Amino acid sequence: MAEDIKTKLGRYKTAPFDSRFPNQNQTRNCWQNYLDFHRCQRAMAAKGADAAPCQWYFRVYKSLCPTSWVTTWDEARDEGTSPGKI
């Protein structure tokens, strides 16, 4: 499975189509991938496993989300006031 992820990451150019978010506005897709990345990191750290599969979510949210949003969300997460469940 790790090889599949590494292969996909190697071919990665931009966020692929996600049928959960079919509309042009990709705000929810951005937010969901941001949450999924941090959830994945937390779960992998708890298991003591390699967090390489989490890089998929990281790349997707980095390509979809404006930097100012990510900065704001990171600050809120650091302060413990993030509205998302991570």
Describe this structure in words.
It is a single chain. The chain is an all-alpha fold and 86 residues long. Helix content is 63%, strand content 0%. It contains four helices and no strands. The protein has helices at residues 2-11, 27-47, 55-64, 67-79. The chain is globular. It starts with a helix and ends in a 7-residue tail after the last helix.
Summarize the structure.
By secondary structure, the chain is mostly helical.
- Classify the helix fraction into a percent range: 55-70%
Q: Helix and strand string, N-terminal first?
A: HHHH
Low-confidence stretches: none
Proportion of β residues?
under 5%
The profile of the biggest β sheet is: none
Distance between the termini: 24 Å
Going by helix content, strand content and strand pairing, the class is: mainly alpha
Give me the number of helical elements: 4
Rg, please?
Answer: 13 Å
Shape descriptor reads: globular
Tell me how many strands there are: 0
Integer average pLDDT: 87
